[in-house]
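Hey team,

Filing this mostly as a record. A colleague (T.K.) asked me to run one chain through the structure pipeline before their review meeting, and I want the input and output archived in the tracker in case anyone asks later how it was produced. No errors, nothing strange. Just documentation.

Input sequence:
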Amino acid sequence: MKVTLLSYTPDALNLLLVTKGTRLAHGEDPSTWSPEKKQEHLDYMRDTIKSSWEFVDYAFKIEGVTRAFTHQLVRTRPDSYAQEAMRVVDVRERAAVIPESVNTQERQSAWERAEHAMMNGYAELIGLGVPVQDARGILPTNIPTSIIVKKNLRSLANTAELRLCTRTQGEYQNVFREMKRLVVEVHPWAEEFINVYCVNHTHCAFPRYGEKECPVYPVVMPNRIVADMRKTIKARFNSVRHEAAMVAKDGKAQ
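Output structure:
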């Protein structure tokens, strides 16, 4: 698996701050701010409306991943994708990616027999004149492929909350860990924008899974407390009607 950051929004930090400033009509030039003031406003942005995040884009090339992974990846609809088309690309010379769980001689032998049958059948069908687009129907889902994906910061952060989670299959986790690493490498300030769900919310997104096997779960807020808090909050919410009277002050809505 290889992930490459092909392009990203230049001067993204100032762009983020400009879009927020425009919304609040303060008219200042964030490029003149001190690092401390920029960080103060970034901290504010992480906890408010995320529309400004959509102005920052990242394009990644992801190679040597399985079709099983890309089938999951493309479910995130706000993003843009360009994937190698097995309808026209002949993949007879490729070997399927073997999962880490195929880690004994017995399992490896079973995998090799199944893969051999599928790949030989694929080659035979093409040799008999069956179009590649039809022969591909018997290929294993772990056949390697490549895909380019463009995500804005909001989509990247939202998807990362669940795909960095230990519940996610290893290949998907590995891709997102690498995507985050590459983004933080060019935009260090983005470190606090891209986190797993439990880091952002202090409780588990999948408590039924977490309490069974997640190594992080013991240090997050207990599900029992979260459930009680939700009931209390819901009861209070249903009993009141309030409308905020927001005012822009010092570049923030207060």
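Quick notes for T.K.: Residues 101-138 form one domain. The first helix runs from residue 12 to 24.
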